[in-house]
Amino acid sequence: MNALLQVENLRVEIAARKRRLVAIDDVSFEIAAGEVLGVVGESGAGKSVTGTAVLGLLEAPAVQAGGRILFDGRRIDTLSEEGMRALRGKEIAAVFQDPLTSLDPLMTIGDQLTETMLTHLPMTRAEGEARAGELLAEVGIPAPRERLQAYPHELSGGMRQRVVLALAFCCAPRLIIADEPTTALDVSIQAQILDLLRRMCRERGTAVMLVTHDMGVIAEVADRVAVMYAGRVAEIGPTRQLIAHAAHPYTRGLMASIPSMRRREKELTQIPGAMPRPDAPVAGCAFHPRCPQAFARCAAERPPAFPVGAARVACWLADPAFEGVPA
Amino acid sequence: MNGTDIILSVDQLTVRFDASPPLLKRLVTGAKRRTVHAVEAVDFQVERGSTFALVGESGCGKSTIARTIAGIQAPTKGAVSFMGVNVAGFRTRHAALPYRRNLQMIFQDPYASLNPRWRIGRIIAEPILTHRLMTRGAALDARIAELLATVGLSPKDAQKYPHQFSGGQRQRISIARALAANPAFVVCDEPTSALDVSVQAQILNLMKQLQRELGLTFLLISHNLAVVAHMADRLGVMYLGRLVEQGDAEQILARPLHPYTRALLDTVPDPHAPHRPRARLSGEVPSPLAPPSGCAFHPRCPLADARCAAERPEPIRVDAVSVACHAVAEGRIDAAQPDRPKDQQSLEQSGDAA
């Protein structure tokens, strides 16, 4: 595969008072040019930390303690702060959950767009201002020319997130890290923003790493999906395969616990217990204490990622050499 | 619902908030008085032992209704009657006690709704002591242990503090506290919005099980249609302070009538049915400071015409559902057809042209 982004054996540790906690443990995945990879998991699974690591924005006490991150075949996790800043915003852009925190409240929208482009692109201020107006029109903001003079607080939440998308796309990046981009929005606005993100990426061939807890959003937007659990990738594969035939017991439990508007069950399938926290790691497979199919090996040995169809599944049940649970 | 046991009746409930600038500023600048129309003329009834869900986007007034029912917010007009008594009519704190005992609340944020300095045992004992149902002693401790067991926690947990529990466990503690005074009715305001899906399933299952065992009545406030679909017997869809459609939950979910309900159901991404054809809602919810004339939904409605902009639709009955829409009343939407009309599907292209 011609990968745009390669994350290999990434390990992120958090320095706690006495020891180092493992937040991300041996995570590997690729994103091809123009591809949308969904990263899904429950809170604390490590999905946002992974996105932050790719952006080179890990902050103490979190540190990258192993692995490599390659962008376009070039290592970026060893870049200097200076080198990374040139890449960020230009080649790799970010969209975060809360548009109010990603926009500067004291700068007009037009200035924010223009400044960003002038930092990364060879253009004059007049060209930048003209381009900013075009971008606002493209993201569906009514009266874009007048809105260039507006401050973020003058816009609604949905409109602000459109401005954030305009900012992300203004330097024509090849990869966008979108961390819960629609979680703070109402469903009708959420659909508008997801449509917009999908359309703009498709038109420009931009790849997306879409971090979300919402399996419904993944199902609508992602080409492939990585399911994270306790800092590890439990399963990664094509979205359709993963939704219809999830192989990892965690993915299956996660899918079954989501209520559906179309079929009404008497009772939802529930996964007992809760995800282990980094300060109380679990030996073997991190999911085994909650897994209905766990057997002795799961508690003793951590499963590697086995290929299942086009997916990779970190579960002993997916081991080609697996011959049933020993009695 | 004739002849059935109505535990809660909301009659023409209206709640408005004054958002005017201060008097002096009004005098100097000539600024006008401004009123937030949070809830306008809402009517519904809840049957004992059932779940009534209010669903809508932020700012539609669903939480204001919950607060009015719980007696935290006074109505501007209209009445809320709980077990035959007008909720706003209590003269003294003492007179309100029986109503307060019977009506408890579960809140959205299990981190903010439990006192971090109190042990779990004290948190759960509070409603029992407030209502003088028991005095301190071995019997109270046994009751707390029983309540903890009911919500799937250990009796030993009574000695711990809230920070020692996960979000899901904290919501179980909130439920135990709500049940402590043996209420008939529980108002659940977004009870699982702060929880992960696998934990959400645990809490929803627990709520259903408790309803079966204790005969509880729930008013469920949620923006999550899938949660509502799982829990509700009856359903009210709110838009800008008004109920646009209400009635049998199964019928509304299978055969939504109001254009807003249809769009709302279509908009929700569902991992169990990805890539289905979906209509899009264009634009945003208008400000409740200046709700549109006529039907409040008309600026976003694909079926709106001149009458919708001028005249507010009155609710009409269609089978087990009541819906306020001119297009339904005039037969411009085929009420019997589950399929969406053509002009609504064309919204998909115009979705971004807000």
From TrEMBL, chain A:
It is a peripheral membrane protein. It is found in: Cell inner membrane. GO terms for cellular component: plasma membrane. Belongs to the ABC transporter superfamily. This is ABC transporter ATP-binding protein. Pfam families: ABC_tran, oligo_HPY. Its main location: membrane. It comes from the Bacteria. The keyword ATP-binding applies. InterPro entries: AAA+_ATPase, ABC_Ni/Peptide_Import, ABC_transporter-like_ATP-bd, ABC_transporter-like_CS, Oligopep_ABC_C, P-loop_NTPase. GO terms for molecular function: ATP binding; ATP hydrolysis activity. One of its GO terms (biological process) is transmembrane transport. Gene3D superfamilies: P-loop containing nucleotide triphosphate hydrolases. Residues 5-255 form the ABC transporter domain. Keywords: ATP-binding, Cell membrane, Membrane, Nucleotide-binding, Transport.
Automatic annotation (TrEMBL), chain B:
It comes from the Bacteria. It is a peripheral membrane protein. InterPro entries: AAA+_ATPase (IPR003593), ABC_transp_ATP-bind (IPR050319), ABC_transporter-like_ATP-bd (IPR003439), ABC_transporter-like_CS (IPR017871), Oligopep_ABC_C (IPR013563), P-loop_NTPase (IPR027417). One of its GO terms (molecular function) is ATP binding. GO terms for biological process: peptide transport; transmembrane transport. It is found in: Cell inner membrane. Keywords: ATP-binding, Nucleotide-binding, Transport. The keyword Transport applies. SUPFAM superfamilies: P-loop containing nucleoside triphosphate hydrolases (SSF52540). Residues 332-354 are annotated as: Disordered. Its main location: membrane. Pfam families: ABC_tran (PF00005), oligo_HPY (PF08352). GO terms for cellular component: plasma membrane. Residues 23-265 form the ABC transporter domain. Residues 332-345 have a biased composition (Basic and acidic residues). Gene3D superfamilies: P-loop containing nucleotide triphosphate hydrolases. Belongs to the ABC transporter superfamily. This is ATP-binding cassette domain-containing protein. It comes from Xanthobacter tagetidis.
